[in-house]
Design brief:
about 140 residues, alpha/beta, Nucleotidyltransferase, domain 5, five-stranded mixed β-sheet, 5 helices, 5 strands, about 45% helix
Length: about 140
């Protein structure tokens, strides 16, 4: 599935940030967010079917020492549901360490010279965190 796109997910309690690769798997682009609700898994599966996605990366929040936190457990639960749904479709799934992506995302957003009101739009951080996560994963291929 080398010609299929890669979707990165930054899973949060309120919002789920999303980023998508190009078909050559070189460049990651933020594509928005969805609200975290009961239908989120179905929303993601619909997006996957619409965008020629062959691989999904889910950011796994660990603490600085690499260990699990309470939030890691919640993300793993969501990830296992997603993995099951993807495997039935023959698609790849990977957890990927997302340590510090939210901090780096915040720094990148501040560097964009946005208006003060735009800086506080939290969805921007979620989308940028997904983009950073995906770009790092792509760079390692």
């Amino acid at each position: 599935m080398k010609n299929n796109r890669v979707l990165a997910i930054d899973y949060g309690t309120k919002r789920i940030g999303l980023a998508l690769s190009d078909e050559l798997r070189i460049l990651a682009t933020p594509i928005g967010h969805i609200e975290n609700r009961k239908s989120s898994l179905n929303d993601i599966l619909y997006l996957i079917s619409e965008k020629n996605i062959g691989t999904v990366i889910l950011g796994l929040p660990t603490n600085l020492s690499g260990g699990d936190s309470q939030w890691t457990t919640a993300v793993r639960l969501f990830g296992e549901k997603l993995r099951t749904a993807l495997e039935t479709r023959g698609l790849e799934f990977h957890f990927y360490d997302e340590r510090l992506t939210s901090i780096m995302a915040e720094t990148n957003i501040r560097a964009q010279g946005l208006k003060r009101t735009q800086l506080h739009e939290k969805y921007r951080r979620d989308e940028e965190a997904a983009r950073l996560l995906l770009q790092e994963w792509l760079d390692r291929l």
